[in-house]
Description:
By secondary structure, this protein is an alpha+beta fold. Helix content is 19%, strand content 23%. It folds into two domains: 180 residues, no CATH class; 131 residues, Muramoyl-pentapeptide Carboxypeptidase, domain 2, CATH 3.30.1380.
Amino acid sequence: MRVLALAATIGAASMAFGAPVHADAHPVPAPLPAATRATSALSGADVLFLDSLVGRSRKLRAFFVSTSHPSFAMDLLQRLFGDSAASTPGVYTVNDSSLTDPISLITLVPFSQKLHGRIGSYRLGFWPYERRVTQPEMYADPDGFVEVTPANEDVRVSEHFALRDFLTHDQEDIWPKYLVLDDKLVDKLELVIEDLNDHGVRVDHMTVMSGFRTPEYNREGLRRGRVRDSRHQYGDAADVFVDNTGSGRMSDLNHDGRVNWRDARVIRDAVDRVEAAHPELAGGAGIYRATSKHGPFLHIDARGVRTRWGRG
C-alpha cells in the first residue's frame, strides 16, 4: 500500500509517494522525492463534490471509495491520481486552496480479498451472515476494508478522529491491519462532541475505547457479554468516553464530584438531541457502568434504527 498526497493548484499538481510499508518496517518510512506531473485544476463540480463529503457536522476529512461501486469519487481519483488509484488500495489526499481542509479519498481493499478469514497475516474471521445465501440488509457483509499501515494510521478521518482510533485491539505486531469504518458513525460522533460543547459540557478529547472489531476478536468476547451480531463488526459502532484530563477514564461531566454512569448519560442525552435533529443517523446508545477494568462509557452506533439500553 502506498500513501499519496496531492497538492492541487491552478493548472498543476504535485503527487508525493510514501514508501511501501511491510510488516517489519520502521513506523516512520523514509520520504521519497516528490514527482510532479501536469494536471488540470479542480473543476467547480470537483470542489462541490469534495465539499459535500464533510458530512452534516462539516468535520469529516475522509471518504471511502469502494471499487465495486463506480462513483464520482472513483472518477475523481482517476483524474487526479491516475487510472490505477481507483483499484490500488491507499489514502489519496486532496489538498487544494479551494478547500477549507484537505480531504482524503481512501480506496478500499475489496471484501473478496479476504480468504479463509484472513487478508495476508491479519486475521479477520467471518461475519455473522457471511456464509448464508441471503443476508439481512442491516447485516450485509462490508464492501471492503481500509488497509492501515504505520505510515497512514494517523490520517484524519474527521476533525477529532484518525484511522488508528478505530482499529481492533489485537494483533499489535501485524501490519498491515484492516479496518471497516462507516462515515455516518464518525459524523455522528462529531455532532455529539459539538452538541456537548454547545450545552456547556467541555470536550477536550473523546476517546474511542472500542471501535471496529473483527469478527474473530468479537467472537473471543462472546462469553464476556459481546453479542454475535455486534455492530462493531460493521464499522458503525464505537464505545466512547470524554477524557479531558488524560487519565484514560471518563471525566466528571455533570460536576457532581463523582465519575459514574450518570456521566455516560450526559453523552447519551447529546446523542438523543443529535438523532432528533438528524433522524437519518438514528442508532443505538447504551450506558455501561464502571468495572475494575474500565470506567463508565457510552456505546454509540448508527445502525439506522433507534434503540436504547443501560441504566438511565
